[in-house]
Amino acid sequence: MIRAHSVESVRTAEAAAMAKLPEGELMSRAAHGLAEVAAARLTDVEGTTVVGLVGAGNNGGDTLYAIAQLAESGFASAVVLVPSAGRSGVHAAGLQAAESAGAVVHVAADDAQDAVEATAEADLVLDGIVGIGGQPGLRPEAARLVDAIDDDAWVIAVDLASGLDPAGEAGEDDAVWADETVTFGTPKPVHLLPAGEAATGRLTVVDIGIEVDDVPATVERLTWDDVARMWPVPDRGDDKYSRGVLGVVAGSEAYPGAAVLCSTAAAEAGVGMLRYVGTPTPVALVHQAVPEAVVGQGRVQAWVVGPGLDTEADTAEARAQLAAAREALASDLPAIVDAGGLALVEGRRAAPTVLTPHAGELARLLTRLESAPAGTDDRTQGGSGAAAGTPGAGGPLSGPADAGTEVTAADVKADPLRHARRLAALTGATVLLKGATTLVVTEGEPVRSQADAPPWLATAGAGDVLSGVIGSLLAAGLSPHDAASLGALVHGVSADRASGGGPLRALAVAHGIRPTVRDLLARGRSAPA
Ligand SMILES: NC(=O)C1=CN([C@@H]2O[C@H](COP(=O)(O)OP(=O)(O)OC[C@H]3O[C@@H](n4cnc5c(N)ncnc54)[C@H](OP(=O)(O)O)[C@@H]3O)[C@@H](O)[C@H]2O)[C@@H](O)CC1
Ligand SMILES: Nc1ncnc2c1ncn2[C@@H]1O[C@H](COP(=O)(O)OP(=O)(O)O)[C@@H](O)[C@H]1O
Ligand SMILES: [K+]
Fold this sequence. Notes:
The protein is of the alpha/beta class. The chain is 42% helix and 14% strand. Potassium ion is lined by residues 59, 127-131, 157-160, 162.
């Protein structure tokens, strides 16, 4: 698992480490690690010239010492001092080290043209303008230099790409776009969140000896090695019931394929048993595609509600299916609610719940729930009574300050984390917000952020597959947070393997789940203890 820590936690850990080490040791370790990566990359890109853009803080200090090391190694090295105070505005000892090693020094404020030219000519740029002490955005003097960077230059962000919000909360267009980021001690939230991930590029963490293992993370990312640790593997005492039965209420006469995709994925994920509830066309298709499935209601350990569900359909069979969906939502069993099922969500469920909207669905759901008149108290799912909303639990539909205004898909895309948090707070559910980076938000837990899939996964039906995988994990007893994030990981890896760099169809992702889980489990078995 990759764990990212808040700036505050990093500062505390750094202070503790610094108290035990000689002065300047942490910066020296950071600069050394940075210079090693920079030297390797100069070799990779067959480059000879490096420039460091140096800001007022310790981020600039790291950069100056790294440039000193690169100059000593024989690379043509320069620094551009960004602050208006010039030499007196940057880390003094670092500047002296860089100069003594032979780096050329340009002061942007005094000699703007020279500084811009030195920046434009470099094969490799170290962005040391600002690190975890920075405010989001670039000041004009910094922006001018960043604009001058050659498109072909390799850009390494020091700790984080300058201009980004270190917390990864605020989206920022005005930032360095790095090919690579070399960070120190531990990743920061911005490296893993949609607001900063693309501008971060490849991420390397340099160990500088700070201790964060026992410090709660702000953002986490599951990696391949977590699958063997978390996946529910049956043992000799298990039978199909003890492993977990999944009920699937999905598909409709309008969208029968969703039932097939969801059920196939659940079967591929190795669910103990699958019960399918639907209308005649998807029933026939599920029978054919997933002969393992049993049709009709019965005892289950968890529900998938909603992929391909047509909440407008009005035949007797469709009404019976919708009643089953409402009953599932009103039950005290874990449920994952997707697509059409989201339209049936009225507020809090008492039982463990995963909601899996894409941006448009999240916007619609937030708008509807936040505009529900206060005091309307039918917060049961479909009103059948078993799991009434939790009275007094913070006023489930009272919502945050911006309640009542319409939320659009564009709002959600511009600030995905904040909106996912809003829905999690409003419903008490785990919210999995789909996208190139999929966010899993549960109140009181570190955000999980998964980016395992290629853009080819943006194809109809891919979400139906995801719901089947997560459903099977819920049925096996995983928490909503683990089921959602582990499901997203395996779904993304399956997509990546099935794509192999080319087009993808959802059914291929579903059929890839079984070999993907098998191989990731085998990887765990062969890993050193
Ligand atoms: N602590 C440690 O032990 C270790 C820390 N390490 C390193 O230190 C870094 C943190 O250093 P830090 O705290 O000095 O802050 P940092 O980000 O360099 O600069 C803040 C200054 O920049 C300015 N500024 C602000 N916003 C701006 C903007 N948008 N655009 C332009 N300028 C802006 C503002 O100055 P102002 O101009 O306002 O006076 C502010 O004071 C960390 O990321 C890591 O690299 C490593 O060496 C390992 C050991
Ligand atoms: N650009 C992208 N890169 C990687 N994965 C993506 C991208 N866009 C969407 N996805 C993933 O594709 C799936 C799409 O799901 P969804 O929109 O629900 O499709 P459908 O409703 O048609 O099944 C989600 O798992 C989502 O995270
Ligand atoms: K930086």
